[in-house]
Write a structure and sequence with these properties.
With about 290 residues, this protein is of the alpha+beta class. It folds into two domains: about 110 residues, no CATH class; about 170 residues, Glucose Permease (Domain IIA) (Distorted Sandwich). Helix content is about 30%, strand content about 20%. The strands form three sheets. Strands 2, 3, 5, 6, 7, 8, 10, 11 and 13 form a nine-stranded antiparallel beta sheet that branches. Strands 1-12 form a two-stranded parallel ribbon. The chain has a two-stranded antiparallel sheet with strand order 4-9. Helix 1 runs parallel beside helix 4, helix 2 packs antiparallel against helix 4 and helix 2 runs parallel beside helix 5. The model has no long low-confidence stretch (mean pLDDT about 95).
């Protein structure tokens, strides 16, 4: 999604809806309630689903504070002497938009439900704060949900000191992404099933749709295969058939293959069937932060 569209849905729309609530007195009640629904739905959509690695986590929390402040201001605003009822059509449109945006947000909340049969793995990154770009058990929380083998996959980015994933909104220099070249370690004691280490890193935005396998390592963890993908060429430190210990270095994060920017992709599967995975006993969902 272009940067301008991200800005509109992530920041501008929530601010507009919060401003509408701020200015709205609590009477007439039906119009106020419709505005509250609208602001709640759009703000929840932004807070739960927007890619906060772009604009920084502090902005996310600021939206929550502004929403609470707007609600308090609206409740305290003097009721006008002349009350003008809101158009029913306008109120209905607000409620419908609230249900649309709020429904997506609710889908992210449902993504916190851990599916049955989850295996537990060690988190494969360390030395910082890591933002879950995609993860969870619903389509709203996880873009991989529709994929037959990757339904419960994680896309993981690292946050820098400004709580963003990169220095700049969408830099072309791979070194400006906090996760680039980060060490990737084995999530379990197991054996290496397969390795690819020949594909070059892509310039962010230049997707290599022909090489979906990408540079990766597949580790056999119990009876499941765990794939760790989008590794930097020449950094894979293991070979197929080798035994590995939990925490052992496998490679480093790159931007190879079908990816728009540096991140680590992780998913587990068993005979082609997706397997949910917790990491150190925790189930990670979109926009959560893992500190390691």
């Amino acid at each position: 999604m272009p940067t301008f569209q991200l800005f509109v849905f992530t920041i501008l729309l929530p601010l507009i809806s919060i401003a509408m609530l701020w200015r709205r007195p609590r009477r007439p009640f039906a119009g106020w309630l419709a505005t509250l629904f609208l602001s709640t739905g759009i703000t929840a959509f932004s807070v739960l689903t927007a890619p906060w690695g772009w604009f920084g986590l502090p902005v996310r929390y600021a939206l929550v504070v502004l929403f609470v402040a707007a609600l308090a201001a609206s409740l305290r605003r003097p009721i006008p002497t002349e009350i003008k009822e809101e158009s029913p059509l306008r109120a209905v449109v607000k409620v419908l938009l609230a249900f649309f945006f709020g429904g997506v947000a609710f889908g992210v909340l449902r993504g916190h439900q851990v599916p049955p049969g989850a295996i537990d793995l060690a988190f494969p990154l360390r030395g910082g704060s890591f933002l879950i770009g995609h993860g969870g058990s619903t389509a709203a929380a996880n873009m991989h949900y529709a994929h037959p083998q990757q339904r419960y996959a994680l896309d993981i980015m690292k946050l820098n000191s400004y709580f963003t994933r990169a220095s700049g909104l969408y830099p072309r220099d791979l070194r400006r992404y906090a996760i680039y070249d980060a060490e990737v370690s084995s999530p379990c004691d197991g054996a290496v099933v397969s390795v690819v280490d020949a594909l070059p890193d892509q310039i962010p935005g230049a997707v290599d749709a022909k090489n979906l396998a990408v540079n990766h390592v597949v580790v056999r963890c119990g009876d499941a295969n765990v794939t760790l993908a989008h590794l930097r060429r020449g950094t894979v430190a293991v070979r197929a058939g080798a035994k590995v210990a939990k925490g052992q270095l496998l490679g480093r994060v790159g931007n190879s293959g079908n990816t728009t920017e540096p991140h680590l992709h992780v998913h587990a599967e068993r005979n082609g069937v997706p397997v949910p995975a917790t990491f150190n006993g925790e189930w990670w969902v979109r926009n959560e932060v893992a500190r390691r």
